[in-house]
Specification:
single chain, alpha/beta, Rossmann fold, five-stranded mixed sheet, 5 helices, 5 strands
Length: 163
């Protein structure tokens, strides 16, 4: 974002502060805008997510090691790496989009539509969207856990794989 000559909106997920640890280069580096990262490679399903959803997907795949999935971390939503999405969906034939946002009006709807318009003949199942509840975000920890898409992702993924 610092190197881009245009205005950039950068959102950080406060729940990820101090909860996720990973190695980062000690030298200066950049991540390209509009390039998704393929974190896991598989053949059964494409999981598309960003932010906290990526970590929820990783947890689910670690718990269900028999699932062979492409896991795409979008990293940026605009520009969107359509090529990475389409190539993966054409390979696996199934797609699930995991977002923390509520279902209505979220980015998963647009990605799902793009997949249907571009990859329809490659799909073996309807595109699945997994999102948080259609309610205001609760402020009590126990209710927030029930609100988030994390709690229903595993069952949605298994349902899609069984289609």
């Amino acid at each position: 974002a610092i190197n881009d000559p245009n205005p950039v909106m950068f959102f950080e997920h406060k729940a990820l502060y101090r909860s996720i640890r990973q190695e980062v280069p000690s030298d200066y580096y950049t991540l390209p805008f509009g390039k998704a990262s393929l974190l896991k490679e598989g053949s059964d399903v494409t999981i598309i997510s960003y932010g906290a959803g990526v970590h929820w997907a990783i947890e689910t795949l670690e718990k269900n090691q028999e699932i062979s999935a492409d896991l795409l971390d979008l990293r940026t939503l605009q520009p969107l790496d359509e090529e990475a999405i389409f190539n993966s969906v054409k390979k696996t034939g199934k797609a699930v989009i995991l977002q923390e946002d509520s279902l209505f009006g979220g980015i998963a709807s647009d990605i799902s539509a793009m997949i249907m318009e571009t990859c329809f003949e490659y799909l073996d199942a309807p595109v699945k969207r997994v999102a948080s509840m259609e309610t205001p975000i609760p402020f009590i920890d126990q209710l927030e856990e029930q609100y988030l898409a994390k709690r229903k992702f595993e069952s949605a993924l298994l349902e899609l794989l069984a289609y």
